[in-house]
Amino acid sequence: MDCKEKTVIDFRFPELIQLRLDVGFFLDIRKQFLNGGILAVALIIFLSYLYFKNNDVEWEYALVEKTMYIDKIMKKSKRKRIGEYDLTKTEVMAPEGSSYIKEYDNRNLKCTDFSSLIPENKKYVLIIMDGNEMVKLVLEPDERMLKELRDIIPRQLHID
């Protein structure tokens, strides 16, 4: 009898090991899935943070003498100077879609949009020399700024 019991134990022992390996493999996959799920959720939260962090942007235009400074204000707290433009080098400034701007559409100009991207707001396009290249700036000046610009660049400014 002892011999048969040993034989039975010998045959079952590899099956028990195999069962333990299968259960261990299943638990390992489950742990990896949970870790991957946690990483995916963390990645989504991080990317959402980056999107909303950089999405709250305002532009500030400042006229000092004959120079326009453009600052980017992020989350109403962090300010960064984006551009400084000498208005004496202005080619033309007119509302977006104006005939004065259309002649510059076929040129390969670097275009920078400093507007709020709200379609209802009236946008103006400023074509100006920046260093050795001509650039196209999209702005949203208010009436007060347009009045000041009329004094600085009267021949280049076209208000429709």
Reading side by side through the largest sheet, how are the strands ordered? 4-6-7-5
Rg result: 33 Å
Q: Which class of secondary structure composition applies to the elements?
A: alpha+beta
Q: What's the tally of helices?
A: 3
Could you state the order of secondary-structure elements as H and E? HEEEEHEEEH
Outline type = elongated
Largest sheet: 4 strands, mixed
The helix content, as a percent range, equals: 40-55%
Average pLDDT for all residues: 79
How much of the sequence is in beta strands? Answer: 25-35%
Q: Give the low-confidence spans.
A: 1-21
Query: End-to-end span in angstroms?
Result: 109 Å
Number of strands: 7
Can you describe what's shown?
The protein has three helices and seven strands, in the order H-E-E-E-E-H-E-E-E-H. The protein is an alpha+beta fold. Strand 6 (124-130) and strand 7 (133-139) form a beta hairpin. It is elongated, with a radius of gyration of 33 Å.
